[in-house]
Amino acid sequence: MNENNTTEVIVENEGAEIEQRELKQINNMSESSLNSSTAPLAVEVELKSSSTESIPPTTQNDDVKTEAITQLEINEKLEQNQEPMSIYDLYSKKKSTLLLLISALGCLQMPLADTIYFPSLKNVADDFNTSMGVVALTIALFMFLVGVASLVWGPAADYFGRKKTFIVSFIGYLGCNVVCMLAPSVVVLIIFRAFQGAFISAFLTVCCSVIADVYPLERRGAALGMFSIPLNVGPIVGPILGGVLGYSKGWRSTFLLLIVLGAALFVVIIAIVPETHQWYVLRRLNKKDPIRRSRIIEASEITSQDPVFMSPVKTFLLAFKPYVSPYLAVCCMEFGAFYGALTLFSPVMASPPYSFNQNIIGVLYIPMGVGAMIAAFLGGKISDWSAMKSTVPEARMYYNIIISSIAFLPGIMIYGWCLQYQTNVAAILISMFFMGFGCTSYWPSVLAYIGGVNQKEAAAASASMFCVVLVAGGVASEVVVFIAEAIGYGPLACFLVGLWIIPTIVSLYIIRKKMIEADSQKSLSTTNTVETVEP
């Protein structure tokens, strides 16, 4: 009996000694955790440790060991997660690629909606017993409203967030498609095509700002290049699908297809796409994981100002900032010339001596789209490479402008004069390939540049760009019809080239001058450093 009591006392003493050693270890860890901004955890461990006096020794020892293991795991996790991280690191490669794909599909809706009934323009005019000039308004006003409405959607996406803006615009877009499909007159079609453009405008600005949210500057050019591919797939797929549907089911069926595709994408966005606005992302992260939030190196810059709704006028004026306007002018003139030239294509191909039907006309857009797809991919890569070679932000556009000029200039000239003399269609298709390549190779670089220098207002900045560029496209698509009738297709091509080449030369001069100055300063700095090191 005494022997058993002695054994129990020894066990209790040993347990007490173990308990004291473990408590001392926990207290040391608690003090260490205070220095790692985990004071609440240490206090909690100390409180739990002090409350073990009323617990039996065996249970007490188990609890202490459990707390010690838990605290060790927490400390190990904290030590592993103390490294600073970028907000862009919140998105895995798989996640950012998925968001890029969905954004690209959202972007696809605009050129698809615009060009899907290009092959049926003559049929629309015949159905409503009106002229081609009136029907061209359905293209011009669509493009005009895509540009102007972006001045509202861009600030809305910067203030309310990307996803909410997406949802509202999608609902309006689907409704407009229904009305266009059932339009009883050309006036109704023109009005709701304009509203359709106003709602679909959000897709471009929001999708572009999502890319700016999840891709850092050093990878953004390539991402925007991939993002631009659907902008150029649309003019291929749209006329092909529109030609088949228009020929077999009538031009109204093209709007039914837009409804089905838009509704499917709407469901995907609701289910998969999170809010990517960086300010809202940090707010959400602060609630879920404040330790991780504290590691974001851009946090202070992002949260320095709450989201604001920039007025449409102020958004529009972003396009006229001196560090933006020359390069945007190149894009504006080039796209206007390109889009205006394409507006002429369908009516010319449907008339003698070509007299192609809607199916064939749709297929004839393929060379242009192929050239654009190749350029979108290469243009993004070249833009990122150029940005790494120079400290001048504008440098990422330099080689893209040169490549664009080499392809676009001969492309549009050959196109215009081939239409003028009604040459073999093969020559026209080759010129369209170079037009598509030339126009698109510049887009990724200017999108990346404008988004980079206006990171906090990424949506508003892209909106200002899309506004002036797409308005130029809308105006050109209406005006070129009348100019071509007055002076011919060849002289029209020369006129469009004249408008485009002036800002192109000016932009190349400005960028090259800045690059030379930056190289000179770098060389001077290197020389001064060497002289300082030498005795």
Describe the structure.
With about 525 residues, the protein is mainly alpha-helical. It contains 22 helices and no strands. The chain has helices at about 1-35, 40-50, 55-80, 95-115, 120-125, 130-135, 135-160, 160-180, 185-215, 215-250, 255-270, 280-290, 290-295, 300, 310-315, 325-350, 360-365, 365-390, 400-420, 425-455, 460-485, 490-535. Helix 1 runs parallel beside helix 3 (about 55-80). The longest helix has about 45 residues, at about 490-535. It is globular.
Return the structural class. mainly alpha
Detail the poorly predicted runs.
Answer: 1-16, 29-55
Mean pLDDT: 81
Q: Span between N and C termini?
A: 89 Å
* Secondary structure tally: strands: 0
